[in-house]
Description:
Number of domains: 2
Helix content: under 10%
CATH topology of the largest domain: Methylamine Dehydrogenase, Chain H
Strand content: over 45%
Structural class: mainly beta
CATH class of the largest domain: Mainly Beta
Mean pLDDT: 87
Largest sheet: 7 strands, antiparallel
Shape: globular
CATH architecture of the largest domain: 7 Propeller
CATH superfamily of the largest domain: YVTN repeat-like/Quinoprotein amine dehydrogenase
Number of helices: 0
Amino acid sequence: MNPLHVLKTIKTIRPLLLLAIPLLVTLVTANRAEYVQAPDFLWALQEGGNGEDRGHGIDVDGQGNSYVIGWASNGGQFDIFLAKYDASGTLLWSRQVGGAGKDVGAQIALDGSGSGLLTGYFNGTITFGAGEPNETALTSAGSADIYMAKYDTLGNFLWAKKAGGTGEDNGIDVFIDGSGNSILTGFFNGTATFGAGEPNQTTLTSAGLPDIFIAKYDGSGKVLWAKRAGGTGEDWGREVSVDGLGNIYVTGHFQGTATFDTTTLTSAGNRDIFLAKYDGSGNLLWVQRAGGTGDDIARGIDIDNSVNVYITGTFTNTITFGTTTLTNSGLEDIFLTKYDASGNVLWARKAGGTGNDRTKNLFVDGLGNSTVTGHFTGTATFGAGEPNETTLTSAGQIDILIAKYDPSGNLRWAKRAGGSGDDFGYSLDLDDSSNTLVTGAFQNTVTFGTTTLTSSGSYDIFTAKLEATASTPTPAPTSTPTAAPTATPTPTPTPGLTPTATPTPTPTPTPTLTPTPTPTPTPVYLYREAESGTLTSPMRKVASSSASGGYYIEVPNNTGDNRGKATFTNSLSAGNYLLWGRVMGPDASSNSFYAQIDSGTRYTWDIPVGKTWVWSRLSQGSSPVIFNLSQGSHVLTIDGREDGSRLDRLLLTTDPNFTPQ
């Protein structure tokens, strides 16, 4: 996850008052403000037929390819839809999987190799990889069962597993941790079996209506453990995330009372929000509730590099997070809330208007900026009372929303897309250059910037990409200084003389110049986790709780110099770039790499000796290495030079004055 530094709001007040006798010139106080503009759409595309087709999940790999999952209409029922697009939006391949029943793709997660793990639910019999060597048919035990299926980067089917029982069971979200294990959440009714016939087979029994499930699988799809939470009401696990230490965070909603291990929560109204943290073995560490007297649902979760937890969703009436109470402006409003690693509320924000406003998904970048997507009706206000306050107005019934907040919960920008029909944003992700990819569904015609799409049926799938860098901030209007009237002196008579009028010269007005601000390019801050690169043996990744993403990379000892490498493909704007690394050089013979961009100079990168992580800039002597790069794709290669040298994180930046911390 690679953040882009965004401009801070700056207010400059310049009162100018010039007094002179006999000439008085008054300049009006000017107030200038820079604000962050929403980025532009780079492209938008659609898929669909004459029925109902929706994009419901998206994930982006290290090369900027996006994988979209959802469902496509099939004679009144649904089939799972899966597609891969390159960074320019060109379709690379697509798959449609289903049977005679209703088969839905809910979400996708990519592992370190770029293979995609899908989850959702199916009804009846469904065949994955028809005609391929690994073809697999699954049959549901009841009205709907959970599935998990894996495809490689070329769209070849690898394997599929199911879970469930005789009731309705849905997989809603999936996350892959740093060890390649996958964690699923959703809901089940009655009894549900996970890992049937395997050593860790587990059968869960719900307490009433749907209960929450959380299940962990290894990289080959074998269940490691599964557990439930809930009570007699409706309880759903909506979304899941995992931190660098393997701790698991789940959010969703519950109704009435719900028990998580030995902790019981009670809702204040209809449905309330829960946020639960488990260790990697499934032991509950803590659980928190939030809510009010209305209907409150969490639908999105993510974690920043400091292990703060962000959740988003909708609420009615009033909702309380810790000591903060938010009040709804209409039917449903949006919330965004930040917790620390212990479950304490740090802040909570709301957005919305008098209609139904919902967020569906959330992504937090490496700087702690959070981006949400969803939809709204009528007008919806984001960042009320803040410098970047934005009110969106829908073109029809329901429009798509995308909004970005800084780590303190202040609005950066908010943007809409839509048309005369109902248009929904369901899921988003950011690529390594901090471009935003979003997917959902639309009716009739929908406009993304300068691109208009027209649906073929009742709903079509859209995928759209927003640029990372907002347009150059536009200053607020500056009032032009106005000169006060100039007094004309009256001649004074001289005794004994007839006064002669002396012509009064007319002052030549001094031109008032309004300075035109020179656009300042927005600095680029592109972070890469070292383990996200393509590794060539013997370069390897090593799990570490002190590494920012849970892993660092190194060349093992006794493998010799110039062995192994890691490559990183980056989409960059034009500029002069510096390279930084979060590194560790354990001793004087384990403190260097080679670094190269594209086919340019291969530099020796000497790093400090020490047993703690430090940020080191690529330099030659005391001078930083500057890469003058054109706009486009560039490959950064880090070669092993000395065994044992460790690399945790990389930063490419155009800011010569920035030092990462």
